[in-house]
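[STRUCTURE TOKENS]
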Amino acid sequence: MKKPVVIALITLVVIGIGVFAITQSPKWSLLEYEAVVQDQVTSPDGEKRLIVERTTNRYGDPLNSLGIGAETKLLDHEGKQIGLEAFASGSKVRVALKDSFVEESPFYYPSVHKVQLL
């Protein structure tokens, strides 16, 4: 009598863990923090970057250079798309990075998913 109950309980626990893993896994790679824009830089090859100083999630070096690509969402206070020129020096922003790993290179690259004015 106890054996079927134990098997059913173990099955429910395994299913519960599976559902939790499936619903949470996309969020595991997302890192968000607030920052203040320090500067905008365009390299000679045309790559655009925002230099920001983190104001949350304190780290040893709070300055970050964020590569802005075609897939990066640039949003205003209301969540509407804007251009990079709207991010003036001193603007407060929320940055969302998505962890990624490039197989062809031994380097780890977090990609900039979203930058939103606060």
User: Anything to note?
Assistant: The chain has a mean pLDDT of 79.
